[in-house]
Amino acid sequence: MDAAIEAQAVSLTKELIAIPSENPTGDEFAMADRMEAFFRDIGLEVMRERVAERRENVTAEITGTGSGPALVFLNHMDTVPAGEGWSRDPFHPTEEEGKIWGRGSCDMKGGIAAGLAAMENLKLRIDGGAKARGTVRCCMVVDEESGVMTGTEAAIAHGHINAEDIVISCEPTELALVTAQKGAMWFELVFHGKSAHAAAPHMGADAIHAASRAVVALQEAVAKLPYEDPLLGRCTMVTSIIEGGHKTNVVSERCAMQIDSRFVPPLRTGDIQQIIHEKAAEACERVNGVEFSLRATIADRPPVTADTGGAGARLIFETLKEILGAEPEPAGVSYYSDAGMAAAQTGSRNCFLLGPGNIEQAHTPDEFIEIDSLKKAARVYGRLLEKFALDENSP
Ligand SMILES: [Zn+2]
């Protein structure tokens, strides 16, 4: 299997880089067409489900005879925009220095390609007479890079991802098995005051003054939290956007803050919201006449931790050891992903990230993926699908 699966992963990676799917603006239609053609070519039925205008998820599966959970590749078809600063054409993949360069090479068209190569290998084995016991499903979703993950929400709503399923997002983890993801919530905190001439500030209620107290207090409150997770580290909070005021000599009646919070167990989203609420209230007590409103701007994204002793994790660890040699260790990440969303919304404790490439190359100009990493991933996925899906006695 090795040479064929590796070559297919490399050639598909290049082909997919050449199909732009930047988000924003958010148009994965050509990618969806290519995914559909791929699955049909290997003899699978394809479901396409509309998520928004020119945005469709594509799902295909190899259905096993067993009744157990499915193994689901949950992968996003979008990339961040190419942006500035490239020394190469981001949509014309080049192969140099043992790397493939282009937008999405690392995040995550390389991972997608390696997963598809493994899917094709499994289908060829079955066409050659092997018996499929386990069901393997590919959910190709839209809209991960916006952070909102409407594609994964739609895939769950359509029943393609269930609580018992083993879910793998082929995101760049350098083939470490990521079993834990920090919670990642976004909030909008708005202070409402009253405008007045800046020469008579006592006549107004200074929203910017209250907001600035809150910014500092939130930093201090989060730094004092006692929680530290062995894989995830500590909580962070960043006020990433702040808007208020319109004239130098006028007290601002409104100041709006956007807050990004990353947090670890045992904290839940409600705990974080409570901290922000308390600090905002304290700020308002110090600045006469100012009130605040607070709301989450995305769906709930709590910290998720997979069951590292469960059947899914054991099978993946065993395969990693078999293909890569070394004893694999679980890892954690500070960013959220489709797999995190799947775990949060279904309650699954079997959602993982595992893929080729290094996250440091994601979202950068001159993004690349190491060909060696890509080939290893294809072999890992190939073997994993065989072990998961095929009957022991298959040819
Ligand atoms: Zn990604």
Explain the overall architecture.
The protein has 395 residues and is α/β, with parallel strands linked by helices. It folds into 2 domains: 2-181 and 303-389, Aminopeptidase; 183-296, 2-Layer Sandwich (Alpha-Beta Plaits), CATH 3.30.70.360. The protein is built from 9 helices and 16 strands. Zinc ion (ZN) is lined by residues 76, 107-108, 144, 171.
Concise overview:
This protein has nine helices and 16 strands. With 395 residues, the protein is an alpha/beta fold.
Instruction: Strand order, main sheet: write it out.
Output: 1-2-6-3-7-15
| Total of helices | 9
The rounded distance between the terminal residues' Cα atoms is 13 Å
CATH class type of the largest domain? Alpha Beta
Shape: elongated
Radius of gyration from the alpha-carbon trace, in angstroms? 24 Å
CATH superfamily of the largest domain: Zn peptidases
| Content of β-strand | 15-25%
Which runs of at least 5 residues are low in confidence (pLDDT < 50)? none
